[in-house]
Amino acid sequence: MITTILFGTTLVHAARPVDGAARSLRALAGRYRLGVVADAAVMTGTQVRDALAATGLTDLVEVIARSSDVGAAKPDPHGIRHALAQLGAEPGEALFVGDTTADDEAAQAAGVRFAYTQPDRDPGIAVRAALTLDVGAYAAAAALLAPIDPAAAAGARAHLERLTKPSGSLGRLEILGIQLAAISGVDPPPLPSPAAVAIFAADHGVVAEGVTPWPREVTAAMVANFVAGGAAINVLARQVGATVTVIDVGIATDLDAMGVIGAPALLRRAVRAGTANLAAGPAMSLAEARIARDIGAEIATTLVSAGARALVTGDMGIGNTTAAAAVIAALTGQAADTVTGRGTGIDDEGLRRKTDVVGAALRRLPSDADPLTVLSHVGGLEIAALAGFIVGAASHRVPVIVDGVVSGAALLAAHADRPDVLPYVIAGHRSTEPGATAVLDRLGLDPVLDLGMRLGEGTGGCLALNILDAAARILHDMATFEAARITPVNDATS
Amino acid sequence: MITTILFGTTLVHAARPVDGAARSLRALAGRYRLGVVADAAVMTGTQVRDALAATGLTDLVEVIARSSDVGAAKPDPHGIRHALAQLGAEPGEALFVGDTTADDEAAQAAGVRFAYTQPDRDPGIAVRAALTLDVGAYAAAAALLAPIDPAAAAGARAHLERLTKPSGSLGRLEILGIQLAAISGVDPPPLPSPAAVAIFAADHGVVAEGVTPWPREVTAAMVANFVAGGAAINVLARQVGATVTVIDVGIATDLDAMGVIGAPALLRRAVRAGTANLAAGPAMSLAEARIARDIGAEIATTLVSAGARALVTGDMGIGNTTAAAAVIAALTGQAADTVTGRGTGIDDEGLRRKTDVVGAALRRLPSDADPLTVLSHVGGLEIAALAGFIVGAASHRVPVIVDGVVSGAALLAAHADRPDVLPYVIAGHRSTEPGATAVLDRLGLDPVLDLGMRLGEGTGGCLALNILDAAARILHDMATFEAARITPVNDATS
């Protein structure tokens, strides 16, 4: 397993305005030992230190090995070996990130893994790929999850005071604009467009308990509907120009037989054919939950690499409000009857049955269960995948708009494991499902919309994109008092 | 003054699918006596009756005069005279609506006013123009204000049950979709696009009381900002493809001197150079309030004629939250300190002063004041114009999205005079101004958004257009269960 990451002088580009490079390095420094192997012909050690100091990165780097220290420049491996010796690290636990053939050859000669980056590119991208091969997409994302940027937030806040409106009069739009700046690290922040909705779909063994009036086959039928573009999420995504990608992480019905093979918007990543019945035992193994979480993180990377500037969580899975209620109860400590709701619509007797199922599953859960154990015992494949998706989105510093109760359960699991995700999250709306409100309350999230919706699919999150987009446009397009030649009044004191 | 409206066989087109014709006639029948003057060569009396009966309009028409009754066809005036005699009406109080030269000549010979319509067109359009010349744009709009269409609402409700989602799961989107169908009379309803924001701008003499920290000149400066496209409302309107039209109904600063002459998005309709100080006496005369209201109704017609499918109320006027609070207090019976807020932002002392001003103005208001008297005594020119605009929009059967506290005051005045406007209204958002909530509570309106905004200009209303548009798109674009080959579950009973 990688414990140590060495960079060629590429690292120093973090001190230049390469988007996100400095934030990637700050995140990695929390979990990895970092070093630089610099060739004097390119940059002296002093130049490297000065450049790093300019962005406050000096302390993150434990060692700077210069070719002059070892008497040989790359492709000679001595610089790398020197750095590893100083850090007390073995070649097998090291990654070298460089941008030249000489860097690659030096790494090979030193017996360390190599990742290729480019001078004008955030080295975090290459590091993510290498870490994904080493520890999986979720852990790689977790390692690259950086704090939001307080300087950009302050910049947006000051910017809003200069715009032609009374201070604070745009309410939540101003707060969202500041959050977008803090997430992206720039003011004005990029518009959250194009956005991408990821619908993770899976089946649930717990449907055997009669927790929903809908047959299990509707999961697959709705996936076919998504792919055909006829569902509510398709309509709302088209409204805002968002893409819709459906990821099968465990549908129990044979999609091939339904004729939805190979549709471009459907990714086949089934971990298993639906979960086991969580009323009778664990829904899945820990390994399966981990795989689902990795898939979610991987999808976030794919969508961001394809150009998405905002990600929306979506879900489809007959029976999944039962699993979501159980996850929410486990991670908030709320009682089963507080967080269990009617889902797509069950009668009173059905609700009692559903609540009993959730209560019984919770009693079997170890009291000190970690988030992954909770997901595997009482969760769902799409919930685990969504947890990974949320951490993945945050690690890419794009806003992630969380939809309703199923996405909310995933958010709780993501947050319990990586609390740093929260500033990247926008609660799209308040679902009428009681579990959704339990999540919002627990995390202190104020939803953008409250429209009495309870459909899932990402519909509430997608609808909130309109408001997020407006918030960003305010920072892009409004005139300042100075440009409009108006003398602003200091509202607070006059 | 017109009391009687006669139609050529054009009226019968109301029985054909001419958009809105039947609803125009139903509205007019509440205030005018209606008759038909038919030439037997075109249509017999029986054919006319049968055609009217097919859409339930028969009872609205008090007389059908046939050329065979009087022995002469148009352009001979005998048919018109015969109809008037049966109704006991004088030529001077009659309007004849026809679509031929013979109709026009017959009307002239009979000494009645004439309005030209076309066979494939709602005759309400011609009637509105004639009534505007007779009694003003506001009264004309009030006469054409029809109930919403319950059949279209029922159609949309049934349609929503067939779409691929659990019943009711789209919450407010479904309710808005049904409302849009009821307003337009068709399902799916037209998308509320393009929309038009009308910003009525005026100054307020009450600024002399120190009710706001902003100088009066900022009204004009912000109008210049609107015309230049730099204000928040411009940004939000561009987001949804809405037009912005600014109407000066009483700005006290010389706009010409500011160089905003003749800008196409600025209409000059100043009734007077700002109101008088409502703390010292009536803000304006009854006649001025009436003119402002007519201007608002006229602008609604202009925007709808130019293609707007939804109208948004906007306002600009330094000092106008004071006038709005007074109107709201007068029309809801709430106390001054309940409905008076900080507006653009005043300190505690300023708020006390503002509340005192509102209270004193209310004490001078006659206890039985009608809405126009309230507007003239304690209102503002933009508030009166907005009241007319709201009635105008409703009379065109387009949704009118009402913004914050100033628009809310206007809505109260419109509703007090014409309660039928309410089903056409969508409360865009809940402003933080306390008066805004008083309006919502009084009228039982549930705002679409609640984002802590208090800017006015129409910003909250414009932002809500996104949600309204989504509601319409759901009805346009979603697949039915049948098309998706899914068997729906009856949620209510299973």
Structure overview:
Two copies of one chain form a homodimer. By secondary structure, chain A is α/β, with parallel strands linked by helices. Chain A has two domains: 4-135, Rossmann fold (3-Layer(aba) Sandwich), CATH 3.40.50; 195-473, Rossmann fold. Chain A is built from 20 helices and eleven strands. Chain A has helices at residues 21-29, 45-54, 67-70, 78-87, 101-110, 124-135, 137-143, 150-162, 172-184, 217-228, 232-240, 286-305, 320-332, 336-339, 348-364, 371-378, 381-395, 405-417, 434-443, 459-477, and strands spanning 4-7, 33-38, 61-66, 94-98, 113-116, 195-202, 243-250, 266-268, 310-316, 400-402, 425-427. In chain A, the strands form two sheets. Chain A has a six-stranded parallel beta sheet with strand order 8-7-6-9-10-11, sandwiched between helices. In chain A, strand 1, helix 1 (21-29) and strand 2 (33-38) form a beta-alpha-beta unit. The first copy, chain A, is globular, with a radius of gyration of 24 Å. In chain A, 62% of the residues are buried. At the A-B interface, helix 10, helix 11 and helix 20 of A face helix 10, helix 11 and helix 20 of B.
List the helices and strands and how they pair.
The structure is a homodimer of 494-residue chains.
Chain A: E1 4-7, H1 21-29, E2 33-38, H2 45-54, E3 61-66, H3 67-70, H4 78-87, E4 94-98, H5 101-110, E5 113-116, H6 124-135, H7 137-143, H8 150-162, H9 172-184, E6 195-202, H10 217-228, H11 232-240, E7 243-250, E8 266-268, H12 286-305, E9 310-316, H13 320-332, H14 336-339, H15 348-364, H16 371-378, H17 381-395, E10 400-402, H18 405-417, E11 425-427, H19 434-443, H20 459-477
Helix pairs in contact in A: 6-7, 7-12, 7-17, 8-9, 9-20, 11-20, 12-16, 12-17, 13-15, 13-16, 13-18, 13-19, 16-18, 17-18, 18-19
